[in-house]
Structure formats: C-alpha cells, structure tokens
Amino acid sequence: MQRPASLPIALTCGEPSGVGPELAQKAWQALGASLPFFWIGDPSHLPEGCPVQLIDRPGEADPAQGLPVLPHSMPGQLTPGTPNPAHAQGVIDAIARGVDLVRDGAALALCTAPIHKKALQDGAGFGHPGHTEYLAALTGTPRVVMMLASDQLRVVPATIHIPLAEVPAALTRELLLDTIRITHAGLVRDFGITAPRLAVAGLNPHAGEGGKIGLEEQDMIAPLIAELRAEGMEITGPMSADTMFHAAARTRYDAAIAMYHDQALIPIKTLDFDRGVNVTLGLPIVRTSPDHGTALDIAGRGMANPTSLIEALKMAGRMGAARQV
Q1: CA torsion, points 293, 294, 300, 304, in degrees to nearest 10?
Q2: Which residues are known binding-site members for a divalent metal cation?
Q3: Residue ranges in the chain modelled with pLDDT below 50
C-alpha cells in the first residue's frame, strides 16, 4: 500500500517497567516536529511531568502539543524495574495494534521499544522467541531476517538465538540462501541501494582454511555464493570473519552476512554501540527497534540513553520513505 512519507511512525510501548516510557519522552524532546511519531501505550506509564497529547487517530499527532499518545490502557500497578504480569497482554496487544495501523496505511512504519520476553511468557503465555518472530506471525511472513544497522556497518546473522553448538546443523543451504536473498531485496527496497554489494563470512576460523578447520565453507557456503554470483548478484566470500570488519574492508560492501549471533553483533556493538538499530527485513511493513534491552536496572532513574531509539525512529522514517519511491 502506498502511503505518504509525511505519515507519523508508530512507536510501541515495550515493557512498561523498563526504560521504554522514559525513552519515548526523550525521543520526542529531541526530535520534535522533525520526525512525527506517536506512542502506543498507557499514558500513566510515562514519566511524571511528560507533556502528553492524547489522540484517537495517528493523523491527529502534533508533536508541538506534547508527546502524541494513542492510549492503550493496561491494568495493574507500574513499578519501574519490576515487570507486572498484568501488563503482559497489553504489551502484546500494543504491538499487534501498531502492525495493524501500518498495514492499514495510518502510519508510515513501526518502531518497537524493547520487550521483556520472560515477563510476556509468565504473564500471558507469549509463545514466540521474541519481537521478530511475533511480527512474522502477525503478518503471515514465512521467513524474515534480522539486520543490525548503523552508519558504519550493516550486518545480518543467518542464525540468531540458538546455542553455538547447534549452529552448524541449523545453517542449511535453504536458510542461508533465503537470508542472502531477503537481505539483498531489503537493501534495494528499504535502503534505496540499486545494486547491493554483499560480503559473506565463513563459519569457521579463517573461513575453514581450505578444509583444514572445517568443511562447511567448501561444501556449502562457497558453492552457494558462486551460484548467486552467476545470477548477477555482487557477492563475495566466504571471508574470514576476523578480517572483514576493519575500516577498509567495510568500504567494499553494503551489508555483511554472518553465520551466527555473536559473529554479527560483536563488530557493530564495538563500532557503534549507541547508534545500532535492529531492523526486520522481509516483512510487508517497515519495522525497526533500538538495539538494547529493557534495562530494568536503571528504569525510572532518568539515566537511559535515547540515542538508539532516536536512530531507530530516523531509520524507520527513511525506510518508510524509500518504499514510496
């Protein structure tokens, strides 16, 4: 569905007892009218003294009147740092509400504040490993890809939240092929890169060193890359992961495909810890999220750094606009 880029971004509340409400206020203070967004959550969960503009529809959002809030009431008391099981279903429903608003053309994109997965499981029997899988289920998307992105690096882990011992078996040809294709398509559609350059890491040290330190590279990864290159994709690898993230190497690709979680996240969190953004590629909507958790230990103390959320909102706006071109 085509929608004007001037539409506001939907920001879900995330875990109410975490830093999400505080970050929403700080992001509004930093962005003002330069990037309209509205918050979906219980207004009573916002920091005391936060100027609020209650709205019935996203189109009413006017940042000059206060933080635009689409009220989403939740039962039970809020205690910063201590999740309340009574909030769990409300948090889940706020995500679904945000997805519906974007799909219906009322919002440009979705930005999600961090959730506390155990709190959702304990309070509402949440049956998904996390945000990404829930969004895929809500939109009927069979395969999605998690990208971590900043101005310095875009990186995609082919396998995500599984034990390291399970990675070799999980890293199938089908999974890696889908991951690369979805990443390539996302760079074109959401980032406006007409001819993306991809770099693929090996699974083993030194990319297997010719089979001496593992066979996955020569048996599966290298042939798959050759196949995609023959189709016209600009793709290199398998590369030794310890030499593909320095400054000169990063100039040679638009996104890196890593084989497992830490291989992908350590480089970007080292390079740009505060500005990393979690992006879900492959969805019918744009979705971003700050690359940090609920930070229960500092919730309610006014200490939370809003940089990652601000960057996530900005990226959501750029990606949403790119889909309109």
Answers
A1: 20
A2: 161, 206, 261
A3: 1-2
**Which residues fall in the annotated binding site?**
131-132, 161, 206, 261, 269, 278, 287
Fold of 152-271: Isopropylmalate Dehydrogenase (3.40.718)
Per-residue model confidence as pLDDT tens digits over 126-172:
999 889 899 999 999 999 999 999 999 999 999 988 899 999 999 99
Say how far apart CA 264 and CA 261 lie, in whole Å.
5
The whole-number pLDDT of residue 63 equals: 87
CA distance 277 to 258: 17
Q: What global pTM score does this model have?
A: 0.93
> 131-140 burial string, b = 16+ CB within 10 Å, else e?
bbebbbebbe
pLDDT digits (tens, 9 = 90+) for 233-254: 999 999 999 999 999 999 999 9
* Shared fold status for 1-143+284-325 and 152-271: yes
Task: Tell me the C-alpha distance between 160 and 122, whole Å.
Answer: 23
Distance of CA 240 to the CA centre of its chain: 26
Query: Which CATH code fits 1-143+284-325?
Result: 3.40.718.10
User: Which residue's entry shows tokens 């890593």?
Assistant: 258
Binding residues for substrate: 131-132, 269, 278, 287
